[in-house]
Amino acid sequence: MNSDAAKRKSQESTAYHTLDSEEVLKLLESRKEGLSTEQAVQRLERYGKNVLQEAKPKTLLAKFIEQFKNVMIFILLAAAVLSGILGEWADTVIILLVVILNAVLGVIQENKAEQALEALKSMSSPEARVRRGGQVTEIKSEELVPGDLVLLEAGNVVPADVRLLEAASLKTEEAALTGESLPSEKQAGVLEGSDLVIGDRTNMAYMSSSVTYGRGVGVVTATGMDTEVGRIAGFISEAENEITPLQKKLDELGKYFTFIILGVCVVIFIVGWLEGRELLDMLLTSISLAVAAIPEGLPAIVTIILALGVQRMAKRKAIIRKLPAVETLGSTEIICSDKTGTLTLNKMTVEKLYVGGETVEADAGLSEIPGGELLLQAMTLCNDSSIDDSGGAAGESSPEKPVQGSGTRSGKAILGDPTETALVDYALSIGTHKRELEQRYPRVGELPFDSDRKLMTTIHKLDNGQFRVLTKGAPDVLVSKCSHIYEDGVAVPLTEEHTRRITASNKELADEALRVLAFAYRDEASLPAAPSPEVTEQALVFVGLTGMIDPPREEVRDAVAVCRRAGIRPVMITGDHRDTAAAIAKRLGIIEDDQAVLTGRELDGISEEDFATRVADYSVYARVSPEHKVRIVKAWRNKGKIVAMTGDGVNDAPALKSADIGVGMGITGTDVAKGVSDMVLADDNFTTIVVAVEEGRKVYSNIRKSIQFLLSANLGEVVTLFIATLIGWRILEPIHILWINLVTDTLPALALGLEKADGDVMAKQPRKSSSSIFADGVGISIIYQGLLEAGLTLMVYYWAHTHYDEGIAVTMAFATLGLLQLTHAFNVRSNTKSLFQIGVFSNRYMLGASVISGLLLVLVIIIPGLNEWFGVEHLNGLQWGIVCGAALSIVVIVELVKLVLRLSGRMKSWE
């Protein structure tokens, strides 16, 4: 390893937050004047540009060819070739169109990772202010190198990962990276613990986060793919695109068919050859049998059913980006959800207040409580946020950078720090307008918030010519600065009993995971000449406390309850603190006590083997990093669970891609999160996931019905031909089989895909990913119903063969097999309920499909010329009566089987 590479590796593994400024500068070979131009050029050559690398794009041809790596596709191509050999070019063209359509759809849905990386690139700051050679200059952010000194101020996007050397009231918005709902307060001091998660490294600022307050200076520690965002980009590009449970089952189905078809064809060919029949004749018979066995319409029908499901879900605010994700949702067992913005509103909200010696709810009449007006003044005036009157409604903002503190109570858009905007929003909601108060009590002096003092003070001129000092800050600090308390309309000396009650109330609010602020004031006869903390923030009058939180969405608790009834386990994963996460989870019904909460640091202390056995013990994870999220998702998946992961931030992207189905937020979600998601919620509403799961279960159920119908029909054809060949009957020609498959398979199978969901679909446990597509009686039904079709067809042929000529017998067999499949489609609508219970006419699509398919089947028999081409003859009334009677008899027989099974209690195991 050369010296540059060794040095770079050492820098990448260094915990810069544990080093002081001098050590950091020495390690990065930099200084407070910044790098020289020559050093910057050399390092740019060594480290490369400060950009995120894109995944190597595949060619369009390579993407197209990949779509054909599927067993069922190979079978379809074989069917196309066989149909061509038989001269059935129309069938060949149809099958090839189906294959090509599937491939085109697959290509269109490719490259989610590349889109996500593009979105990550767009989040980088285009320019950066740096100090080089003692001079401040502005350069393209891609030219930044480790060791550069970067100057940050409110409104900037952090252009690289930096270790802060100076921080003056600096706050950065890191929600997209860490999941924390509040901006992180930054400082330049040394931190202990090399294993601190990103959210706790308060002396670091990270690429793509934004500065919301204050200013600072930092030295670049990592650029490009070495940054935290770069590591996320690496996770996204490395994560494998795994196939869905349905795709796995269809692949298995294709393999089964391959062996069965080949086996049956070989047997038929050998039997015919031993009987002395012509080899060409037996070859054609074997080929027609293969065509009969191959469900050539299955992939197209599955695709169409999924597409119809996608349309229905889009109307209900769930946008599907990848078709197979629909059925994956239906088997979801675990929903790992980000907290901020997904389970909560991502907007700080005042919930409780302590004023006049008592704790009250936010919706109490504050102005009627002694001290309430003073508290409102302090909340509103000692505040740097502003009301946006530009016309934007609350919450209207760029998805990448949502407006901080958009009003949730007042409906106004408010700009500023989320904590401060929550205070102004609350005041607005009860009739106190910040701008009106500022006009009445103009600000004439201030002491900005400082993270060391933990206080902020503003001075305002009153109507009577006096001046009012308003201070807010950390309760323990502010109370120590107070000499009086406002009680019963007057200021009285602050006693130990007062302090005890304030402390108790503060603890009560903090125990509920509320962010608590204290407020105080002091009136002065004249304006202080030079406001200072030592003079101005002393001998204050305590007014009250406010408790704030990013509240859970009102509808989510019901959605969580529905998930539990449906056998789905909700798991909260957040970058927020343990107490906050636990409090929100309890409100939502995700947990009942703190035992089910695990922090990222605690997770680091658990081995992979141990965590694999203990993952089911935890339903809430707090202070986690992107690596932790991926680890949690993979642990559940390794237990054989189908996992959905919801999220909106950059930090969620790796886990979204690692999950069986990633669910992004359409409004607040970053382009990165949406880019790697399989599904996007257009309304950012957790309850929409429940709707999507319901739709997914319905789609999977309908796909299984279509598969059952197609396979039982094809089995009926195979058994009919197999037995007839063994006996020596020439019962059906290849053209008959192809026409039956074309007109009787497609439309009824699609109609089954439009079947309504059972009313109790969300009261059932999710199906296991390991469960067979033939489980719950589907396999048994396919076998006995296929044998029924074959038996009834052979019986009609035998009767006709003994009473009429060969042409009539073949025609009756052809008509019977075709109409049997159409009537049997009604049986498949439910494996447990009677057709008459669900309603014969309740699926109008099935009625339409049966009429159209039936007409197409009958017309080739009754239209002169066309029947000659198909090799069939006209039937009289008796013959049609026998055919129709046989076709309807399968409904009667299946109904009797269902009745027996229901009476025996066997059906319960299938429900």
Keywords:
911 residues; alpha+beta; nine-stranded mixed beta sheet; eight-stranded mixed beta sheet; 34 helices; P_typ_ATPase_HD_dom; HAD_sf; ATP-binding; transmembrane helix; ion transport
The proportion of residues forming helix, as a percent range, comes to: 40-55%
- Average pLDDT figure: 81
Pick out the low-confidence regions: 109-114, 391-407
Q: What structural category arises from helix and sheet content?
A: alpha+beta
Rg estimate, integer Å: 36 Å
Taken from the alpha-carbon principal axes, the silhouette is elongated
Head-to-tail CA distance between termini: 63 Å
Structure annotation, total helices: 34
Largest sheet: number of strands, sense, barrel closure: 9 strands, mixed
Beta-strand segment tally:
26
Instruction: Please report which band the strand proportion falls in: under 5%, 5-15%, 15-25%, 25-35%, 35-45% or over 45%.
Output: 15-25%
Family: Belongs to the cation transport ATPase (P-type) (TC 3.A.3) family. Type IIA subfamily.
Pfam families: Cation_ATPase, Cation_ATPase_C, Cation_ATPase_N, E1-E2_ATPase
Transmembrane segments: 68-86, 92-108, 256-274, 286-310, 707-729, 735-754, 774-800, 806-826, 847-866, 878-901
Domain Cation-transporting P-type ATPase N-terminal: 15-88
Task: Describe this structure as you would to a colleague.
This protein is an alpha+beta fold and 911 residues long. It is built from 34 helices and 26 strands. Strands 10, 11, 14, 15, 16, 17, 18, 19 and 20 form a nine-stranded mixed beta sheet that branches. It has an eight-stranded mixed beta sheet with strand order 8-26-25-24-9-21-23-22, sandwiched between helices.
